[in-house]
Amino acid sequence: VQLEDAQRAHPEVRELDTQIEAQRQTVSDAQGARGSESDKYDRSVEQMATLSRELEATPAELQVPPPDAGELQELFGKVDRLTLDNLESRRERARGDLKEQRGQADKDRSNARKDLEEALRTFRRNHPLAAADMGETLDDWPDYARVLVRIEQDDLPRFEERFFRLLNEQSDRHIAKLRQRLVTEKEEIRGRMNIVNDALSQSQFNPGTYPPGF
């Protein structure tokens, strides 16, 4: 009762008690946070020690980074620095990225296969004799590859170009000769017709047996 009377008589004492209690709670919270951080630190130290022991037990030839280590590092650490705390989230994100890349790669492979098979069908249509015994699927590609090697070894494109060049030259030459021949024969025919007309004009015919003015 006397304590309550004293607190009512001196309210600053009650306020001081409240502040002391608040400070005690702050200290308690800080100690709890410190303990939690200390536990995290201890776990990290333990994990590092475990990893160090595993590394020491790993043969030297296996300690070399894999060929795709750079790509994996970029995949795991392209957003922020990779740590033990964010390793799991980065792993899930990397897994999603890899899944997306795989889907795109599968799509590209399917499109490439369709394009190749369309090219094989076009070759068969344009060269039915050369591709008479060949199919039109990806499994038939080795047959077409052998034909391609043979064409390249025989240098057929160069001979094809030479053939068409000679064909064009011969065609132009033959057309010129044909034109000259037509002109010559035209003149010969005209000359023969003049001889016939002269002979007919000197012959006597009964009236009405040939058109007037012939």
TrEMBL record:
Keyword terms of this UniProt record: ATP-binding, Nucleotide-binding
Positions in coiled-coil regions: none
Segments for region (Disordered): 1-70, 90-113
Compositional bias (Polar residues): 20-29
Compositional bias segments (type: Basic and acidic residues): 1-17, 36-45
GO terms assigned for molecular function: ATP binding
Keyword Magnesium applies: no
Segments crossing the lipid bilayer: none
Protein name: ATP-binding protein, putative
Naturally occurring in which organism (per UniProt): Medicago truncatula (Barrel medic)
Organism placement in taxonomy: Eukaryota, Viridiplantae, Streptophyta, Embryophyta, Tracheophyta
